[in-house]
Amino acid sequence: MNRTALVLSLAGIAVLLVPALFGSFAQYLVLNILLLALFALSFNLLFGTTGLLSFGQAAFYAGGAYVAGLLLRARVPILPAVIIGALAAALMAAVVGAFCVRHTRVYFSMLTLAFGMFVYAIVWKWSDVTGGDDGLIGIPRGRLGLAGPLDPNLGPLSRYYVFAAVLVFASVAILYRLSTSPFGLTLRSIRENAERAEFSGIRVRRTIFIAFVVAGLFAGLAGALLAPLEQTVSPSAAHWTKSAEPVMATLIGGPFAFTGPIVGAVVYLGLKELIVRFTEYWLLVFGLVLLTTVLAFRGGLVGALETLARKAR
Amino acid sequence: MLLFQGLVGLTEAMYLWLVAAGLSLIFGVMRVLNFAHGSLYMLGAYFSYAVLRAAGGNFWIALLVGPLLVAAVGWLLEFGFLRRVYRIDEAFQLLLTFSFVLIFDDLVKLVFGPVYQSPPTPKELSGAVFVAGSILPAYHLFILGVGAAVGVGLWLLLERTRFGLIVRATAADREMARALGVRSSRLFTWVFIFGAWLAGLGGALSIPVRAISPGMGELIIIEAFVVVVLGGLGSLRGAFLGAVVIGLLHAYGLLYLPVFELALAYVVMAAVLIVRPRGFFGVREA
Amino acid sequence: MSTRSRTTRRGFLKASAFALAGLGIAPRALAAPKLNLKKPIKIGCQTILSGPLGGYGEFMRKGALLAMEEINAQGGIGGSPIEVNFRDEELKVDVGVKNARYFVDDWGADFLIGIDSSAVALAVGEIMPSLNRILIVTHGATEKYNEDLVYKKKIRQCFRISVPVYQDGIASAMVAKDFPVKKWATISPDYEYGKTSWKMFRSTLKALKPDVEFVGESFAKFGTVDFSSHISKVMAAGPEAIFSTEWGGEAVTMIKQAKLFKVFDQTKAFMSPMGAAMDVLQGLGPDYPDGAWASGRYYFLYPESAENRRFVEAFRKKWNSYPSYVSETSYAALYAIKKAVEKAKTLDIDHVIEALEGLEVSRPAGPCVIRKEDHQAVYTVPWGRIRHDPKYPMPILGDLRVIPADQYYRKPPFPPVEA
Fold it and tell me: Rounded to whole angstroms, what are the CA distances from B201 to B40, B41, B157, C126?
């Protein structure tokens, strides 16, 4: 088992131990970190490989959240609601991706931003369906939806925690396999030199499109898992400030290692939660942390750690 | 009425233009997406407000000194921080400028307090004129004038001066410009300072008519980005046209399709990019 | 005028429990009875502390801290000192929910107060049964909080100490019916609250004055800094009066710009339901047009009672500033908690809820009762006309119109709001 897989497995075990050792706020916080980690990993599927920075991933995150939320309110059990939410997000990503993959770099980023904010506007204005700026409130958290006699009620937080964590782990495993597979290699070759990749027979645009849809799928899954957790979904889930979260987490942790976005998510949410307990000026402290990270740690924290490890050998 | 609404839209466009101009210039030459541009606009507002109070309410002194102070901050940012990250990934540069946004938001809150401030509108500019069948504030005409002057001034600067020549050359082909002896590091500093000054000017001009508060930069930066991209990266002409289009569409959109107000700028940009992938006048790959 | 005090800035790093009084003014004659409750009693308060609306949080915190100091100087609640902790709501629902969970699950809060945003109030209200603590909202004004959450869904943990949107949409119409004005228009924020208050205003006014017409409307998105297009659009419809629920910094911006467009010269009346907030009064200063109608959730010069005067004086002495309405509501919330707990003689939530229902709260804003049916505090806030008085550093309200609260508060069973 290689190092990354080992680290991930250990982290997974640690995560599953949390409900046994800590109270509900800790579970809540860790779950938020897991969801952001998934969100960031999905973002980095595109960014870490092809260098395309999508500023609109929150569109799919929110899509997953709202669809799942609406289904849950209609008394659909959790598992199908979440999965359908994720698939709906993937569908959205297919539509948006069809427009966006033709563009590069800054134009790509701005176009994804535009679509993201377009979804935000729709969610805000279509109050009959989405609840407008009040959002979807009172989303129930009930049965899991397994066929057969053993269908647990996920109302208690610790049970939902286990369910969501398992789903996140499965997704991380899939994303890991993808990134080390020939598909992942193809994506990386596009970053190296898109022209050359095209000449060697790779259909660049189609590959990027597939990656975009997969990224949207997992972003949607993260959002869909959020709906039963918070029991509320609001338009801010689609805003560009939400899209900025996986970007920041990835850049902090480092986009070139698979675990980078995960580390980044931990630092981003964990640090913010810590700072907020001591001062109201969390923007200042957080900004300084970001500043130092960029100036001191090229390639993010994981990159820095790997450099250190290499030097130590 | 329609003409009047258009006039109002044009004034909105001028504010956007002032912020977008500096952003466009900085990107065109330095290839940096300066997220902190909105913060520079905010600093322009705060500094001018402070100068206004110190100068006993003289708006013109505030207008003169405020943006210069912002230019100084711009120098600090470029020289102290930005130039260290030119060689690394663009995304990290974005993160760096974003960190400035967070830092400045809290710094102004620390220094000026979290409550919004607003100086009284200067008497000379509180009047109104009757035009196109309605009443237009004199201040709006003033802004139209300033926006146009900046447009003309920038055009003259770029087309008729040596500095402008160097800027255009570097924007067109950095390698070639360097090969011909252009010291890009010094150029970058000057361009950033100038861009900051423009943003500061925008902020200074806003204080008689808009509340000043921490976080006000975020309210305009995204729209400024949209304008710059819409016009085509690296094209000042495009930024001007983009601002006008957005301003007019907003003004007319309110009359006919108010439900789109929230998403208007984004929809327009997306539509233009789909048809013209490089914006109005964009000449290069981003 | 300065709205912050340098010495207290350091104190903001973490709201501490034992801020000793030093005021020298005893607010209440009675000392707290000794009830052997847990020490300290913790109260979590969330409010907007950052961004363009950060001024609200500042004022809310100041009011809460003043109450905390005073209460602790008298021996606390039932002999237990109180400790208030503040967190930034950021106007975001997920942050609001996280703050509430942090306060209860991690910090050990016994009560929750605060919340500026209606959306956050609704979202946090929904999870109160699972957190099982009392929440007293001090600003968020949506009618859905008391009508849906408390009355219909029977979420007993939710309370609100501040006036809801009835003040903005109904009381306003009752005052407006006497204006010599037939054509109204609005420039308001584009979200539920802006739309609902305009709907309430329209339906109430139409019933009171059938010949009234609503000729124009323009809703501005959050973060609008340039209202020019909205103003010109609305004025083109030829209104005689404008109703606007813009608040905070946006109210300041909108009114300034409207003044430049000579809106106030061309119309006979202007009504701003939150225009008498201290931050708006200060922000506009001499630019606030005389005669504009404004209100809020508390106005510092009403009522002219000893209690109100004492509160304003104590606030000014401590913070070198006049109190905004969120200062009074957070202040009142803490005193309501004190009174309810001391009446119930326990912290057990069911007993405190019972004590709060029907409680008569004595507060600077005047006589106030917390309704049993929907846990909404009922008290009267006046409407008034802006005027500039040299005695005060900011504009004040004159020509006060006082309509008793029970005349304009909606009552159960709360029929749907018709346009």
Answer: 9, 7, 17, 47
